[in-house]
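Protocol step 4 of 6: structure prediction from sequence.
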Amino acid sequence: MAPLRFTVHHRCRTTHARVGRIETPHGAFDTPAFMPVGSRAAVKGVTVEQLRTTGAPVVLANAYHLMLRPGHEVVARLGGLHRFMGWDGPILTDSGGYQVYSLSHISRVDEDGVTFRSFVDGSEVHVGPQRSIEVQNALGADIIMAFDDCPPAAPEAGAAADRHRAAHERTLRWLPRCLAAHKRRDEQALFGIVQGGIDLDLRAKSVEGVCSVDLPGYAIGGVAVGESTQRIREVVEFTAPRLPEAKPRYLMGVGYERDIVNAVRAGIDMFDCVLPTRNGRNANAFTRTGRLQLRNARFREDASVIQPDCDCAACAGGHSRAYLRHLFQAGEMLGPILVSLHNLRHYQRLMLDIHEAIREDSWPSIAKAWPVTQAGGSDGVNAE
């Protein structure tokens, strides 16, 4: 029995964008899809019930973090990740490969994997392809990721570019080891990850190598790790159409609304990013025209909600910008909760409008309805 089924229902006439549906053992979701990040089996600041109200169809968790605390064996003994966190919908687990990049200051890479300095107790922890898959098998997510070598952004030449070449080659060598270690192939869909940095020749070689292994889906990794928006777009537009048409395409760790729309146009089906909750905790509210920094004094007596047409708990509840600013100024935890919920809903509303634009063959409507997705507007603070 296949652990994942993917069906494309509609293709845009003018772009590579498509609307599809992914079916997993814990339910189905429509694509393009945005996955909130719950690295430690929790999307920061919100309950599972609140998360459902945002329309989130699938959640991402991180195998590395859960391996260290509380331990994947503990999660397995308690019934698996779905039961442990109380989320009965689809879950994807990252392999820990991203930590090769984010924890590069406390890790070292070799042919067998990566040795980290644990953020819990400072002990050395080694994770390789087999270990990563073992952990993800124990956690029980519906979609699991191959263990890859994810380096930081690199220039066109020099030692950093050599690091990307080595990461690309190592990722290819690790993939068969991941597949061989995968013990729950009827229940969990293993996705391969394309690396190569901003070197398009390396990206092409990585696509060829990774996609030579027949897997339920494929991802583009190693972007949004320090590149410019234009570089991200170039890599995605080059790589996405080269991935198998009949399989889900996942762009890891992206991103701002502009980056998502550009990637959907290129044919990407799945996204994840910490931005909605990270920004929410820091009083940054997303809107269709740009971000609002709610700590600013100009909101002190602003009676309007964040986004008048939004149906999130903050906006539909009538909580004014002035009130939200007060919560942050007073150190009340309700402020980060409400703004995080708004931001999570903001991203799901964007995805719904993208679905409609593709189905109705009205792609230009996205630019009109979401000015934030246009050049110069996506990640800046809205001056209104």
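Step 5 (inspection) to follow. The two ends are 53 Å apart (CA to CA).
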